[in-house]
């Protein structure tokens, strides 16, 4: 048995003979035990063989009022909220299966408190949709688990920040408590609190299930008249020029037919840039490898809250009787050649990049030092230069809306942003102050994109998921 605490030493000592920990051959997320970068596509092949999918799951309509492209968190949330606002002639196109690409392997964390009042409101709406609204409407459970959230303060400045967050939470009716190290130990007995100044505990934070959430959203939307079509890749966006010389969306092209529509919503995740190019729209995001590891069983970890240590840039997500351990690397790997064939695959985990999280995780929960690794998960995620999502109508083409670039926060911001995007499409503007997310604002300040995004990712990761 190889253990988490020994992984760093073994990786540094011998790159060619990695321990079973680092090989992580027990994979929960794929049918194969080994994965090569951008080449493994076993899961989607199995799905298509089982379901007999050689074409779209439903016939394509000739026209639609809105076509949402991408069946991940944002696509499903946007479709659902468009229907909630009264639209019925709306279509969602997914090139593979719902959740393919990024959403299926997301950690699904939901923290209710952020430094922005707008984001607090967006998160509150997501939580309401996932925890109660969808179940009341459909009778189906989304997989929501309310196990609480714990933010770690290892210095006085961080504790002061958390006290301000608690005050902000009070204004929005969010229950939260600043705990002393002793109180934190009572709540989370496995945690090392010797170096802590305190913690911020939010009892009603929790964990979302991506598959359950997207399935329930799609069923709720179809019950209201929407059409969800899987296994239908988009091959082009037709754009026309009106009498005033303004470019407008005309239609969406697929290998199986064309849908006439005045409105397209780009929720394609890391593929959003390619989709934008089809319509002549600049989508300034970039794809990176993003990873976490799933541990073996940990005695006493059941029912513990999720943990976020912003200073160590690591999170610990409860996963039954185990933990998922992940974070945000100082030297992330860019995915330059985004493959259209990549759906339910994973990259090989680069331990040179990931090992920086191990010390922080073991320091916070010492039991991890003697805990084995069950699986590794390394998939694509999209990031933007200012760590803000890209939303709103593109300035180049009228009727082309963006809902992408969520910096690994697409699940927890999905409900709130899906609602705002739906309102934006129907009424021409969002209900809330979404200025920081507006693609027009983003493009105005865009400079040296790749350098900027790397700097933000490395230095401003304090409020990533």
Automatic annotation (TrEMBL):
<dbReference type="GO" id="GO:0005759">
    <property type="term" value="C:mitochondrial matrix"/>
</dbReference>
<dbReference type="InterPro" id="IPR006076">
    <property type="entry name" value="FAD-dep_OxRdtase"/>
</dbReference>
<protein>
    <submittedName>
        <fullName>Sarcosine dehydrogenase</fullName>
    </submittedName>
</protein>
<dbReference type="InterPro" id="IPR036188">
    <property type="entry name" value="FAD/NAD-bd_sf"/>
</dbReference>
<feature type="domain" description="FAD dependent oxidoreductase">
    <location>
        <begin position="65"/>
        <end position="424"/>
    </location>
</feature>
<dbReference type="Pfam" id="PF01266">
    <property type="entry name" value="DAO"/>
</dbReference>
<dbReference type="GO" id="GO:0008480">
    <property type="term" value="F:sarcosine dehydrogenase activity"/>
</dbReference>
<dbReference type="GO" id="GO:1901053">
    <property type="term" value="P:sarcosine catabolic process"/>
</dbReference>
